[in-house]
Design a protein that fits this description.
234 residues, alpha+beta, 2 domains, five-stranded mixed barrel, two-stranded antiparallel sheet, 5 helices, 10 strands, elongated
Length: 234
Amino acid sequence: MMSTRRFQPRWWAWLMLLVGVLLALRLGWWQWSKAEHKAAQRAQLTLMQQSPALDAAAMLKQPPQPWQPVQLQGSWQPQGAVWLDNRVQNGVAGYELWMPLKLSGESRWLLVNRGWVSRAGKAQIALAALARTDSVRGEVVWPGPLPMELSQDVQQGKLWQNLNPQRYQQHYQQAVLPWLVRQTGAVEAGLAHDWPEVDDGRLRNVSYAGQWLLIAVLMVVLFVVVNLKSRRRD
């Protein structure tokens, strides 16, 4: 007695396989396209960060692009400095110091992230010493969506949970420019400028694309295995 295998799926089974595979491939292509789009954005960001630095006159004449370098001069306003709590770098909790800079001929303040310091090092930061310089080099960052604040106690003196430009203006009764700057360069007066790179999620999209492709292959394999039927023959 011998047995052979036959492969005769029903028409509706072929249709289900076709729909499933096409859907999986479409979703995989969608994720891959998102990854390519983010890669192009990342390349543009790198070019922007390598572009010539704007001075105050150029920045005020036309709103700068995100991550565009700037070289600014003005007078620091240490009375308007705030510390942002619970800012983690390399697994260490600390603070970010934001200090306003008054540009020449401009009544609005420019909020500048002067750098990061650990909790233990905060007591060693002297605001008066940081205010002695009259220039800063950094890059433009536009305010993003504000995080959800579950507690009403988001501000204790100069210690804040998040930087909310509207809340800042109301608190200090002082208008501020709509964009922000974070200082770059070497450590200054104990404040580090080793900012983490922006995670654009491109690698996750590549991973998702690979998963959808694998799902399409598995559907074909399972379809073949399930529809191979044994037939006995004398």
